[in-house]
Design a protein that fits this description.
heterodimer; A: alpha/beta; Peroxisomal Thiolase, Chain A, domain 1; three-stranded mixed β-sheet; B: mainly alpha; Non-ribosomal Peptide Synthetase Peptidyl Carrier Protein, Chain A; about 50% helix; globular
Chain lengths: ~400, ~80
C-alpha cells in the first residue's frame, strides 16, 4: 500500500497578539484561573489588511518551491470564515501563490472539522491512484469574530496551516483505513451570518466529548482491539482552546480504564501537553487545529522518534468527530525546525486590550462592506515595520465587493 | 440508587472542583454557575459524577439542565 502523508507543513499565527493575562485583568477575571483553565497564554490578532486569504497564503508561501507548484493537482481550503457564499477563497489563493491553471480547487466547510476533511479528501485522492503522480495542497485558515465582554472572549484567536500531501511524505504518514467518525445534528457553535458566531458553550463542550467518544469507538471497531495507553505514543485533540485537550484526554483514559485524576494529569503531560506549544500562543485554532498541534508536538517533544504513532481527534461543531492516526517520519523535526515557527510568533507585535478592541471594531466595520481601503498606518505603522519588503500577502482594497491582494 | 445519594456525589465533586465553597452553602435549586463555575468546571463535575455513579448518558442531553437538582433527576433516570 502507498505511503501517504505530509511532505511539508507550516503554520501562520498572524502578526499581532494579545496576552490573556491583560484581557483577564481588563474583564475583571482572575488571570491565573483564566490561563490555567484554558491553557492559553496569548491569542493571535490581525490588522484589517489581513483575512483568511492572506493568512492561508502566508502559511503556504514558505513551503512551496517552484517545482512543488508544478506538481500540485488538487488544492482544498477548509474554513468556516469564508469571504463569499459562492466564490471559494481557493481561487484568490491560487492566483496569489502562482499555481498552474490545471489544479482542481474548492473550499469545504464543516466548522473546525473542515481542515481534517480537506486532509482526508487529499489522502483518498492520492490513495485512489487517480492523482496522476500529482500532490495536494491543503490549507486551513480561520479567525474569530468579535465578542467583547462575553465568556468565550477568552477562547478566541486565529491561525492558518498549509500542507503538501503526497506519496513521498516526510513529516507523518497517515494510517490508511485506520479512522472512525461520529456525527449528530446539534446547534452548538455556528455562524448564521457574516457577523455572528453564536452558540452555547456547554452544549459545544458536551457535544465535543460525545463526538470524541463516538469516533474513538468507531476507530477501535475499524482497527481492532487496542490498548489506549500503549498504542499511541502521543495524542492530539482538537483545541477550541488548549485546555479542552485535557478534558478530551481524560475521557479516553477513563474509557479504556477508569483511573485517578492525578494519573490522568501525568499521562496528559506526557502525551498531549507538548502538542499545545503553538496553540497556547495563537488561541483558538479552528480548522487548523490538528496541524498546529502536530507542529507543536514535533517541535516540543524531544523524545518523539520516527515510527511513533500519534492519535488525532478532529471536531467540527454541528457536529462531527473524526479519530485517525499517523506515524512520525524521520525528517519530521528537521522540517518543522526549518519553518522557524517560534521565531515568526516571537516577531508578532503585542497589542493592548484597547488596541485589540479598536482593530476588532474596524474589522467588523469592514465585514460585508462593498468598498473600503484598509488603513495601513494602524498600530504605529506596523505595516512598515513588519510587512514591508517581507513578502507577506495583504489585502489592498475592496471595490464593489471585489477583493484585491498584493505582496508587502 | 436514591436521589439523595446522587446529590451527595455531585456535591462532593463540586467541592473538589470549585474553591471556597462550604457544603452547607450548596442549594440544589441553583446552578453551579451561581457558585462561580465556568463551563469547564461544570463538565468536570458532571464527568466525574457520572463515572463515580457508573452512569452513561449522551452528554448533549445534559446541556439544557439548569440546576444541580435537575442534574440529579437526569442521573436518576439513567441509574441502574
Amino acid at each position: 500500500m502507498k505511503q501517504i502523508g505530509i511532505e511539508k507543513i507550516n503554520i501562520y499565527g498572524c502578526s499581532l497578539y494579545m496576552s490573556q493575562n491583560d484581557l483577564a485583568i481588563a474583564r475583571n477575571k482572575d488571570p491565573e484561573k483564566v490561563v490555567k483553565d484554558y491553557l492559553i497564554d496569548s491569542r493571535s490578532l490581525n490588522p484589517a489588511y489581513e483575512d483568511m486569504v492572506t493568512m492561508g497564503v502566508n502559511a503556504a508561501h514558505p513551503i512551496l518551491s517552484e517545482q512543488d507548484k508544478e506538481e500540485i493537482g488538487l488544492f482544498v481550503v477548509g474554513t468556516e470564515g469564508s469571504l463569499d457564499f459562492g466564490k471559494p477563497i481557493t481561487t484568490n489563493i491560487h492566483e496569489a501563490l502562482g499555481l498552474p491553471p490545471n489544479v482542481r480547487n474548492f473550499e469545504i466547510k464543516h466548522a473546525c472539522y473542515s481542515g481534517a476533511a480537506a486532509l482526508d479528501t487529499a489522502i483518498n485522492w492520492i490513495a485512489s491512484g487517480l492523482n496522476d503522480n500529482k500532490k495536494a495542497l491543503i490549507i486551513a485558515s480561520d479567525f474569530s469574530r468579535k465578542h467583547f465582554n462575553k465568556d468565550h472572549e477568552f477562547v478566541l484567536g486565529g491561525v492558518a496551516a498549509a500542507l503538501i500531501i503526497s506519496d513521498t511524505p516526510e513529516v507523518i504518514e497517515y494510517e490508511l483505513g485506520k479512522k472512525g467518525c461520529w456525527t449528530t445534528n446539534v446547534y452548538d457553535t455556528f455562524r448564521p451570518t457574516a457577523f455572528a458566531e453564536v452558540g452555547n458553550n456547554e452544549v459545544s463542550l458536551y457535544s465535543y466529548l460525545d463526538a470524541l467518544e463516538g469516533s474513538y469507538l468507531d476507530y477501535v471497531k475499524n482497527t481492532g482491539k487496542i490498548d489506549f495507553d500503549s498504542y499511541f505514543r502521543s495524542n492530539i485533540y482538537h483545541t477550541p482552546f488548549p485546555g479542552m485537550a485535557f478534558q478530551a484526554h481524560r475521557v479516553l483514559c477513563n474509557l479504556s480504564r477508569p483511573r485517578k485524576k492525578s494519573e490522568i494529569i501525568e499521562s496528559f503531560q506526557e502525551k498531549n501537553l507538548p502538542s499545545l506549544r503553538y496553540a497556547q500562543r495563537v488561541g483558538s485554532t479552528y480548522s487548523a487545529s490538528n496541524f498546529v498541534c502536530l507542529c507543536g508536538l514535533i517541535k516540543s517533544d524531544n523524545d518523539l522518534k520516527a515510527g511513533d504513532r500519534v492519535g488525532f481527534f478532529s471536531y467540527g461543531s454541528g457536529a462531527i468527530g473524526e479519530f485517525y492516526s499517523g506515524i512520525i517520519l524521520p525528517q519530521a523535526r528537521e522540517i518543522i525546525d526549518s519553518m522557524k515557527i517560534d521565531e515568526a510568533l516571537d516577531a508578532r507585535r503585542r497589542v493592548s486590550v484597547e488596541e485589540y478592541e479598536e482593530i476588532e471594531t474596524i474589522r467588523e466595520r469592514y465585514t460585508e462592506n462593498p468598498n473600503f481601503t484598509p488603513d495601513f498606518s494602524v498600530l504605529d505603522n506596523w505595516y512598515d515595520k513588519h510587512y514591508r519588503g517581507n513578502k507577506l500577502l495583504v489585502l489592498k482594497e475592496v471595490k464593489d465587493y471585489i477583493r484585491k491582494y498584493d505582496w508587502s | 440508587m436514591t436521589k439523595e445519594e446522587i446529590i451527595k456525589v455531585i456535591k462532593k465533586n463540586i467541592l473538589e472542583n470549585l474553591e471556597e465553597i462550604d457544603e452547607n452553602e450548596i442549594d440544589i435549586n441553583k446552578s453551579m454557575k451561581d457558585y462561580g463555575a465556568n463551563s469547564l468546571d461544570i463538565i468536570e463535575v458532571v464527568s466525574c459524577s457520572m463515572r463515580e455513579l457508573k452512569i452513561k448518558i449522551p452528554r448533549t442531553e445534559l446541556a439544557e439542565i439548569n440546576t444541580i437538582g435537575q442534574l440529579a433527576d437526569k442521573f436518576l433516570e439513567h441509574a441502574e
